[in-house]
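Issue 218. Parser rejects a valid record. Input:
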Amino acid sequence: MHRRHQRLHGIFWVLACGSIAAGQSAGTFTATGSMTTPRFGHTATLLADGRVLIAGGYTDTWNPLPYPVNGPAVTATAELYDPTTGVFTPTGSMITPRAYHAAALLPDGRVLIASGFGSGRPEVNVDSAELYDPATGLFTATASLSTPYNTATLLPDGRVLIGTEIYDPLTATSTPAANPQQPAFGGATATLLPSGQVLLASAGSVSSQLYDPASGTFSPTGLLLAFWNQTALLANGTVLAVGGSDDDFGASAGAWVYDPATGASSATANMTAPRADLTITLLPNGQALITGGSTWTGFTPPGGQQGMLFICCLASAEIYDPATGLFSATGSMISARAGHTATLLPSGQILIVGGGSGDNSPALSTAELYTPAQLIPAPALFSTSGDGRGQGAVWHATSGMLASATNPALAGEILSMYTNNLIDGGVIPPQVAIGGRLAEILYFGPAPGYPGYYQVNFRVPSGVAPGSAVPVRLNYLNRTSNEVSISVQ
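Output the parser choked on:
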């Protein structure tokens, strides 16, 4: 691994620091604008410009299953949330109505939307995919899938693992990966590990599988999960799985931690409440936020056929601290929600959108913001002008010279730059996009001589269009930095 290089001499720039947002209380939920369309089972994708794309979902009544059983109404509409104004505005509609689908931000700033449930009764699995372009506000068709899935994971090489298929944005094609161990549709979770492998767990199974992009194959691993739970990668490289339902179809308060080094999981402390159809979000301080969800208990009706008794949706939220392995309550949401989304914003706040508030209740259009106790903004890239724009403070790792028009970077060359607001001691690598293509990360860690700042060494990918102002962005915890530019030959 290419280690850190000496600091860049002779160039100075402003190192921006974040601050607590004015007018917000730490650890509380506050209302923000409402969506133009009520929905649950939608996707929420943070765009490179800081807006959030809300797409699809069900618009009728919510019930405790992961998808409705009483005549679902699926929408193709989409809208954008602007954190600077707190307002949702409509954007172009998807080609195909879909709910509980998958979405992934691509290195070039477009959003891949794939699979999901479509209109009809019973639910129809959608095997198509489409791309949203923020520059035009339009969706366009792309590759079809051989099997429907509900997970989409951006791999370190820029391809996307959609369930057990590989989508290549450069060719707009999707091909099945080799030897998947089990289906990945219907309540599945997909977690990108620091190694570049992907942990896949399907609802209704008691084992999981790992996808290795280097070999293009799957292998079984030993994570044991409840049905319909949620997972999040923690800063130390382990995976936290929470909630869902147990074998009796009751909501579970259980939590497990999967260790990729051993391929085994172990129970950690229980949540403060049983939850299914919840959200889990890794915060920039390394803790995890769990919000809402539904709770119910199993029962056996006359005749012995197992069923379930729905209880309610939850407004409560809690924080998991990996340092102690414990959950603790935090402020409650304004509305009880399940089937909602939670998106970490560039400011450090979390946007909570939509969902359902109770059995057979109307879908929600409301949204709210959670302000954590420690508000940490997205990482920044630095420029020679000091304003975070134009020529980036990005240098050739071997010479320390700027990657500028007089000394352009070459494909395959190693460059270095500084950033901030990474999790101290964390092992989750940032992603760096150059000209819309992902770079190989060779090193990230504390910047020598600059406490609180971090150095990132990366390799210029092939295929980048040459130019004197090629855009460079860093993505970390699904938040994108400001854009600077370098020269590429």
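Fixed in the parser; the record now loads. The two ends are 25 Å apart (CA to CA).
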